[in-house]
User: Fold this.
Amino acid sequence: MSILIDEGANFIVQGITGREAVNLTRECLDYGKGARIVGGVTPGRLGRDVHGVPVFDTVAQAVEHNGGPIDGSVVTVPPAFTKDAVFEAIRHGVKLIVIVTERIPRRDVAEMVELAAVHDARIIGPNCLGVIVPDEIKMGGIGGPARDAAKAYTPGPVGVVSRSGGMTTEMSSTLTAAGLGQSTAVSIGGDAIIGSTYAELMPLFEADAQTEAIVIYTEPGGRMEAELANWVQENDSRLPIVAFMAGRFMDEMPGMSFGHAGTIVEGKEDTAAEKIARLEAAGIKVAEEISEIPGLVKERIGVAA
Amino acid sequence: MRFFEYESRQIVKRAGIPVTDFGFATSAAQAREVAERIGGPTVIKSQVLTGGRMKAGGVRFADGADEAAEHAEAILSLEIGGHMPRGVLVDPRAELRQEYYAGVVWDGIRKQPVMLFSDMGGIDIEEVAEKHPDRVGRGHFSTILPFSDHQAKEVVAQVGVSGRQLTRITPILTRLARLFLDYDMTLAEINPLGELEDGRFVALDAHMDMENEGRPRQSELLAELGVGGEETRQAREPTPFELAGEEVDSMDHRGVAGNVTEFDGNLGLVIGAGGGSLTLFDAVRAHGGRPANYCEIGGNPSVRKAAGLAKLVLQKPGVDKIAVMMSIVSNTRVDIVARGVVKACLELGHDPSEKIAIFRIPGAWEDEGFKILEKYGVEYCDRSVSMHEAARRAVKKIQGPAPAAEPAEMRQTTAEVGAETDA
Assistant:
């Protein structure tokens, strides 16, 4: 099993005629059992096709052409147009929206998240690479071309959640090399406000029989890790969690932003040191190096190292 | 992007919130003119983007215009926390009945803005929240439904403020909430919000922070305030090295090879991507290495850009070698980065095998990349070598086999400005 998507899911790509979106479409079509991309949307480009995927002017046209509901959308339109594209997807019944676009103002993200909640839709990202269910389906650029994604990701018991898209693949590849596959890997994005946080994805992993442990990649800035620590303590989770914290050097440089927009040390509570303490107090082991992660996971799920 | 106090007050005023008849001055003579216009006791305040002005002597009180000019003269040459003031704000000294606090910030967990209000103004709100939690009112509000007065009233009423105070504060908070969203702020704070002897309310100090991502659509406001596109308003101003990094990144629109931050170590870093750079910078330090810089590459930059970044780092005084490392890449071609860094060495007359301590970029087109590195004798590794192990090898090469248990002291080159940087 998996969370968020499975091989039967269909989705569209909004902004499909952009250079990155064209590549992303190819990658998703080629990966695993082949994604069912039922359409692409770029206003003014009705009638074209991208790798055989028909292009429409509006999401409404794509839904009509499909003759039934569309499960998901990958949004890759420029920051100034992202909010409208996401509103459009939500209003036409799309329930899972992966926002790839970077540098979207926080107010727009908050508006999208609020509208999604009203319509019972879920947003992953922005500024993320999407979701992958190893050997089944990927939705977004996660893992890159199908051949590369197949090298890094294998099916197995570990759920991976990461604020960095690239590090999602690095950690999964390290797990794969140690014989630990992944149930689902989610790149949640590096911005200060995101559609789905660690704690918001935990109940989904909790309900997924395949998942036996969680590995997360975290950074300084924000309160998402504190939220996860609280969730773990309040919900008596069956899933052991192993975390990796990057950007420890940032603690010495408050007010400076590195890496992602969400990584800026503003107060006492959002430093790397404080987060590590909070996570460990909740029983979440924080690895010093990526290479320690497989061993720590094996110890916790009772697999010989 | 943080605004100076005089700009923040202009923003508040633009939103329809009453302010005092303040003036901004960049010379003692200008300060005298403003004080004469005000005609009475004034407060002279240093305009710097840092806290602790009062303690440092950056806020002084004057009875007349002569004294105001004298204070302005002194404050204009007074450095505070590594910052020289941009000017002084000359403010009429107000007789206050009471000081309040009003602010709006984002709550990343609730994913909504939250309004904060306290009847204990004039001091740090975090301190009030910690010591007197019952004196801080809070209210989250929607970004898709219009903000309405009753939401402000509820926040004010939480701390027991009623009567005419409540009705007079309400429109100010409503305007602050709208300003926060309209101008893409990450912080909009009035502290203190003063209640004058005659019962009127006026913003006596304001602190505004605009999100960088919002700047493109706030050009009208920024132009009105005279804020140029080149002003980053980071915790410290960029160094010439960092500005050169920005130039490299803007060579063309393909990918990223920039986000350079300068340090004073001897190991140059050509690293990526976002999370990978954070991980690798930590890894170099954990093994006792002294990074000369932080940077990010990703999104498939051109050979020219990768070479430009590598050259910049190689030419930095004190840099002996560079380490070229990334987390597994999927949309950046390994061979392009390899070509770029080798090209940089050759064009500077260096032997790539000497100058490149290690190349660890696994992923797309890696075989082609490794072939190039092999040809020039550069040590490289694939994904079977961890990021930390690659960092360790690079540090060992530059420092010899000395064991290093503790992270090396980290110094930012321009440590005199802004944040505390000593390890």
Summary: The radius of gyration of chain A is 19 Å. Chain A touches chain B through 67 residues (CB under 8 Å). Residues 79-91 of chain A form the longest helix (13 residues). The longest strand of chain A covers residues 155-162.
